[in-house]
Amino acid sequence: MNAFSPAEGGQVPEDGAQLPVVAAVDVLVVGAGPVGLTLANILGGHGVSTLVAEERETLIDYPRGVGLDDESLRAFQAIGLVDRILPHTVPHQIMRFVNGNRRVLAEIAPSGEEFGWPRRNAFVQPLVDAELLSGLERHPDVSVKWGRCVESLTEVDGRVEVVLKDTSGQRCLVHARYVVGCDGGRSITRRLMDITFEGTTSPTRWLVVDIRNDPLGEPNIYVGADPDRPYVSVSIAHGIRRFEFMVMAEETQGRAESAEFVQELLARFVPDTAGLDIIRRRVYTHHSRIAGAFRSGRVLLAGDAAHLMPVWQGQGYNSGIRDAVNLGWKLAAVAKGLAGDALLDTYDTERRGHARAMIDLSTTVGKIISPTSRRVAALRDGIALAASAIPQLKRYIVEMRFKPMPRYDSGAVVHRSTARTSPVGRLFIQPRVDTRTERDVLLDDVLGPWFAVVCWNNDPAAVLGKESFALWKALGARFVSVRPRPQLHWEGQDHPDVVVVGDRTGRLKAWFDQHEESVLFLRPDRCVAGACIAQRASQLSRALAQALSLTPGDLDAARSVLPVSQPASRSH
Predict the structure, then answer these.
(1) pLDDT at 560 over 80
(2) 29, 305 in Cβ contact below 8 A?
(3) Which of 419, 422, 446 shows the shortest CA–CA distance to 529?
């Protein structure tokens, strides 16, 4: 038995067995923020019984995160909610760094849509979170309990016994095969696990002010690297404007939180500060921290509970969504008996390095924009302007090529090549394609929400062979043959389980032309788990079954646990 300590101030009843058991579920998600809600949508889509327990009585109704990237939108596409979320976004948001004279030092304006969506998007978090919450209504196996905090966790007999306490002090018991703490930077789950939260907290304070009826109305985001007082001005969807200002060391907390101070700072940008409709103002500090472990037994951490980073690249929210996407399919596979428990160990293996890279990048950008020394700021400005005069460097910044992309050297992947061009461990692209029944749809909508075996100009059934084909079919994989568009309607000897895709844009042909591998095994998170030439497909299939701890067992039983919901294809 593994007994985690009760939260500070909490008390575990001497006889926990006397508490009423209100639920027995596969997964208990602690926290109804964006990470917990996304994870619950993923699990619900695969028919995994899930309970979300949230300490608050309702969703947070004020803006926090303001930036979505293409990976997050791809995740929302996968859970069938992207069409509900898009109305709350501003796509292709440009970020401009300006100096104290408002001269542009650098501009980030990536134009490509490698993964099917704009790379930078402003959004209104409360409205997006509300869509994630309403999305749970589609899943009968998912429920939410508000006003419930976790008091204790005890791992026993292949499950976790969780004591929840409501706002009146009443306690109840939940039995869960796994618990995922998505309960923020002050995570009770992490404290109960006795996991360290290593890193630093910046001594510099920032004041954030959110305003309705945008007094400026200009689009995009400006990061003011002004030595007199660094600031940020962000245009968000639905007429919301966010300002952020550095609070100087000599300015007291009381002054920083006063309405007069806010008016004084805004007066530099807004002609009539008295007429502003302020949603909220808040002083905060930046944290650069990561948990010592993302898993302990049957309890795991995700989102801010696992890592915190400064806001400068807008990656705190997006990193949490990556956690949910990486962990969600693995929990579903284990809960449904398609994979062994060891698969969950790959979550920490895969996510830790990338989360750390995002923390480091965000911390570094903060150091670049925040000097208050005019001498240091002038030196920085000179370097930035010189760099922008070099086309290669300017393109590197504009296209956001400095952003670390997920790449898994180990985990639920099999590397057959050491070449830097190997696609294994990387996200696969998502162009628009045609099928024999639909035109101009995003590739992921064809691949479905689970595993997929993709071949260029070959029949996956023939390439895999009977044994490997039967294995992946039992696991619920989708089989896709990608061909040049003119071949789409040629009636050959295609296996009835194979979906034929026409490469309408030429991007898929170009991708396969740049790689020697022509057979791809794609995970549900659209990461390439393995890749090879056609004649090696069966051999690689066996290696993947071991690396992913796949245990499909009886084929008929495995077929009965295929994902229960798939996003509808969107034609444009």
Answers:
(1) no
(2) no
(3) 422
State which amino acid sits at residue 5: S
Burial class (CB in 10 A: 0-12, 13-18, 19+), 113: middle
DSSP element (H, E) containing 178: strand 171-181
Across residues 298-313, what is the average pLDDT?
90
Tens-digit pLDDT profile for residues 405-416: 888 999 999 998
Main-chain phi, psi angles of 337, to 5 degrees: 80, 15
Helix-then-strand count for the chain, H and E: 17, 27
Ramachandran angles phi, psi of 175, nearest 5°: -100, 125
pLDDT of amino acid 563:
54
For residue 90, the 8-state DSSP code is: E
pLDDT of residue 396: 65
Question: What is the signed CA dihedral for 291, 292, 295, 296, rounded to 10 degrees?
Answer: -130
Helix axes 315-335, 345-369, angle to 10 degrees: 180
- Burial of 386 (C-beta count, 10 Å sphere; 0-12/13-18/19+): exposed
pLDDT given at position 404: 74
Of residues 558 and 31, more confidence is placed in 31
Rounded to an integer, the average pLDDT of 360-389 is 84
Q: Which residues pair with 91 in a beta bridge?
A: 121
Query: Chain-wide mean pLDDT for the chain?
Result: 89
Say how far apart CA 50 and CA 40 lie, in whole Å. 7
Amino acid at 468: S
Strand-pair partners of 30: 53, 181
Mean pLDDT for the stretch of residues 115-144 = 96
Cα separation, 241 vs 233, whole angstroms: 7
374 against 165, higher pLDDT: 165
In 264-355, beta strands by DSSP E: 277-291, 295-296, 299-301, 307-308
E runs forming strands in 350-445: 432-435, 441-442
Distance in angstroms between the alpha carbons of the first and the last residue of the chain: 55
Q: Which of 243, 559, 232, 497 is nearest to 370 (CA)?
A: 232
Dihedral Cα 431, 81, 39, 318, nearest 10 deg: 60
What is the three-class DSSP state of 435?
strand
**Lookup result for tokens 């790689």:** 515
Predicted structure pTM score: 0.92
Using the structure block, give the residue that is written with the tokens 């948001």. Answer: 93
